Amino acid sequence: MRVQGLRAALAEPGVDVLREGVRVLEVTQHVGAERHTRTVERSGQRNGYREREWDTRVGTIDLRVPRVRDGSYFPSLLEPRTRAERALVAVVQEAYVGGVSTRRVDDLVKALGLEGISKSQVSRLCAELDAEVACFRTRPLTGPYPYVWLDATFVKGPEHGRVVLQAVVVAVGVAADGVREVLGVDIGLSEDGAFWLAFLRSLVARGLRGVRLVTSDAHQGLTRAVAAVFHGAAWQRCRVHFVRNALALV
């Protein structure tokens, strides 16, 4: 039976199928050999079992999960977190992204019937968000992006123990197939020319190429950075910013 077939079978009631699949099939494929069998394909050694509970919609099932000596095996039929834990992490992370204070997150967790959560615990739970954002911000950019929009806004954020206004710059590009994509985001203390220049150079270093037209406001530092980085590309003033600037003078 293949692993895919086993997973489909597990949708039906049958703890015996689950036990057999977890105990034999996947670990055999993982180490590359049957139990007590020597082959050139073997890449690991079994090392007994460990007890594990599996939360399902029909209740909790006790499992004996095979161990591998290098610790690299984890059954795909199980998930690293239980449903209740995943729900709690999702609530805390959503509150964190929404700018809710640590004290209010603690109140929220208590309202869910738990004992509460500390600032350090919130930081640990949200650390994986930081990792995902870092991966997004540093991912390679493939293919040409003929059209690029640049803009910035200011938000309050912590800096050396105090809350200050910080510039958040963003680049949005349109690929050759017409798909729009956020190319990059960065945060700095001010929206000056040096910051824009470093930001645009980081996009080029990640693979941004083929830029033919850049649209932005008329910030002098930004326009100079565009001219310095995107040689030969045309620049167009954003009409929305132009109208806002004009209305501010009325």
Can you walk through the features of this model?
This protein is an alpha/beta fold and 250 residues long. The protein folds into three domains: 3-68, no CATH class; 83-138; 147-248, Nucleotidyltransferase, domain 5. It is 41% helix and 26% strand. Strands 5-4-3-6-7 form a five-stranded mixed beta sheet. Helix 3 crosses helix 5. The protein is flat and about 80 Å long. Residues 1-15 have low confidence and may be disordered.
Give a quick summary of the entry.
By secondary structure, the protein is of the alpha/beta class.
Helix-residue proportion: 40-55%
The radius of gyration is: 26 Å
H/E series: HHEEHHHEEEHEHEH
Beta-sheet strand percentage?
A: 25-35%
Runs in which pLDDT lies below 50 for 5 or more consecutive residues are 1-15
Secondary-structure-derived class: alpha/beta
Question: How many separate structural domains?
Answer: 3
Taking the alpha carbons of the first and last residues, their distance comes to: 75 Å
Mean pLDDT rating:
75
**Name of the level-1 CATH class of the largest domain:** Alpha Beta
- The assigned CATH architecture of the largest domain is 2-Layer Sandwich
User: Which word captures the global form?
Assistant: flat
Number of strands: 7
Q: Main beta sheet, described? A: 5 strands, mixed
